[in-house]
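Homework help board

Subject: predicted structure for assignment chain

Our instructor gave us this sequence and asked us to write out the predicted structure in C-alpha cell form, then describe one feature. I got the C-alpha cells but I'm not sure how to describe them. Can anyone check?
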Amino acid sequence: MLTVEILVSAALGLATVLAVCTGLVVRFKSPQPRQREESENYFLCIDEKHERQRLGSLSDEPTVDLSIIVPAYNEEERLPVLLKDIREYVTARRQSEPKFSYELIIMDDGSRDKTVDVAMDFARTHKMRELKAVRHVINRGKGGA
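My C-alpha cell output:
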C-alpha cells in the first residue's frame, strides 16, 4: 500500500514539474508582438483634405453603425470584386435604413502589389468616402491586420 502512495505522489510531482516547465518555456520563448510603426496609426481616405488621418481607438465612442474590416495581402486582383459586393450591400441597406452609417477599412498587411492603390481608386470612382486604407510596413499576418 505504501508503494502505491509513493508512486502516485511521484507521478503528481513529475506532472507538476512538467506543467511549470511548459509554462516557463511558453512564457519566455513566445515571440513578443511587434510595436506599430508610427505610419500604421493613420489611414488614407478620399475626403476634402486629401491627407492621412489618425486611426481611432477602441476606447473612443462609436461613430458608425457598422465597421467592415478587410485584412488584405497582395489582393489587387481580387479586391475589386469584394469592394463591389460590399458597395451593393451597404447601398441596399441605406435604402432600407436611411440613417445607416458604416466604415470600410482595408488593412493592407505589407502587400507588395497595388492593393491600396486599387482600393483608393475604387473609392474615388464610386465616391465612397467611408473607405479607409491602413498600410502596414511589413506583413504581420491576419492577426496583425
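Reply (TA_rk): Your C-alpha cells look well-formed. For the description, you could write something like this. The CA atoms of residues 55 and 123 lie 18 Å apart. That's the kind of observation they're looking for.
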